[in-house]
Amino acid sequence: MEGAHLKVSDLACRRGDRVLFRGLSFDLAPGGALQVRGANGTGKSSLLRIVAGLLRPFAGKVEFAGSVSLLDGNLPLDEHLPLGKALAFWARIDGANEALDAPGLNVLSDVPVRYLSTGQRKRAAIVQSAPKPGGLWLLDEPLNGLDAAAAKWLVGRVSEHCAGGGLALIASHQPFGLGDLTPLDIVDYAP
Amino acid sequence: MSVFATLLRRDLALAFGGGRRGGAVLPVLFFLAVAMLFPFAVGPDPVPLSRAGGGIVWVAALLAAILPLDRLFAPDFEQGFLDQFALRGISEEAVAAVRLLSHWLSFGPPLMLATLPAAALLGLDGETVATLEWGLLAGTPGLAAIGLMIAALTLTLRAGAALAGLMLVPLAVPLLIFGAGALSTGGDAGIALTAAISLLLCALTPFAAGAAIRAAREG
């Protein structure tokens, strides 16, 4: 089966009365990964949210036929529920089997989400946002709050996903240790 | 299990299970508290109490509808639930429709149940209680729908909770006029009109709330 391409053409983003970037175009083939780089407030997160279809672009368009997953700073899990049950809700929505495959998470299955540490919350969010095979995985500052071992595990997850024909779009101001990563400096598209 | 059943189950568990939405218990207690305060303020004379009692119950129901407003959408919006639903192709309208159903279930029937002790406190007779219960059955879906719409519209506002309460009051006046009006006229026409307004509001709300959620993302 032919995997889906991500085609972004002539994208512009406006927040309030400020244009963050314009004329942004790129093409990502199946198996490709792209890192959006730039300082805080330059529009990395907005770009990801536009690609996800959550924000309307000021100009331009995004074409992608496939499932999209987003990992951002939020943890969409019910805080009072044990981690296992909170993740099981999303597994039921996705019609998938729940898998607590992040290192150190399976022992936390019975712990309410609100008791998790920053790094554990981030790992739970990564599990929650796990993409479908061949889908597009949007990662917004994915390394925030992760220790070295967990960061390495995440890079492994992303490279596995791309090896299986999936796409990844990573917004981060710090280096992401993935071998085959196309850089995209958002400053180049500032107005 | 279908996606909608899964959503409804989570909503109901949050409403009744003492989850973060504070549950269905708080509005009911507030409703009873208002009904209990009136005899203290007006005096124990049963004649004015039983005459005004039906209206008092309606006002108490309207005030109780304000309490859950800030927990209807705001936590899900801030925690990214609504974003994740959208990514999975579940439309905002569908999320709002499911939430309307769960909100009414956690608000309407408990209030109708609490009307019985409230009616006893106010010394209402059986006929008035029956008209009141039918009126609440017809009116509470409308109150729930107005609340849901306002909760979605005030998502990005700082003082959303206080403003939402103020916005609900004038919008709920038609329901109050026909619902409480049925008590004095004793006819079914008032209840039928209340039900008609409720139906209209329930049909409109998923679309209004869905559009409001999408607009809130841009904000």
Could you characterize what this model shows?
The complex is a heterodimer of chains A (191) and B (219). With 191 residues, chain A is α/β, with parallel strands linked by helices. Chain A has four helices and eight strands; from the N terminus they run βββαββααβαββ. The termini of chain A are far apart. In chain B, helix 2 runs antiparallel to helix 3 (46-66) and helix 3 runs parallel beside helix 8. The radius of gyration of chain B is 18 Å and the shape is elongated. Chain B has ten helices and no strands. By secondary structure, chain B is an all-alpha fold. Chain B has one domain. The mean pLDDT of chain B is 89. At the A-B interface, strand 5 and helix 2 of A face helix 1 and helix 5 of B.
Sum up the structure in keywords.
heterodimer, A: alpha/beta, Rossmann fold, 2 domains, 8 strands, B: mainly alpha, 10 helices, elongated, cell inner membrane (chain B), heme transmembrane transporter activity (chain B), transmembrane helix (chain B), Cyt_c_CcmB_bac (chain B)
Over all CA atoms, what is the radius of gyration of chain B? 18 Å
Number of helices of chain B: 10
What is the CATH superfamily classification of the largest domain in chain A? P-loop containing nucleotide triphosphate hydrolases
Q: Report the end-to-end length of chain B measured between terminal Cα atoms.
A: 34 Å
Tell me the domain tally of chain B: 1
What is the tally of helical segments of chain A?
4
The SS-based structural class of chain B is mainly alpha
Helix content of chain A: 10-25%
The stretches of 5 or more residues of chain B where confidence is low (pLDDT under 50) are none
Number of strands of chain A: 8
Q: Which assembly state applies to the chains in this document?
A: heterodimer
Helix content of chain B: over 70%
Supply Rg of chain A: 17 Å
> Quick check: average pLDDT of chain A?
88
CATH level 1 name of the largest domain in chain A? Alpha Beta
Distance between the termini of chain A: 40 Å
- Largest contact between chains: A-B, 25 and 21 residues
Count of strand segments of chain B: 0
GO molecular function (chain A): ATP binding; ATP hydrolysis activity; transmembrane transporter activity
GO biological process, one term (chain A): cytochrome complex assembly
Domain ABC transporter (chain A): 6-189
Organism (chain A): Croceibacterium salegens
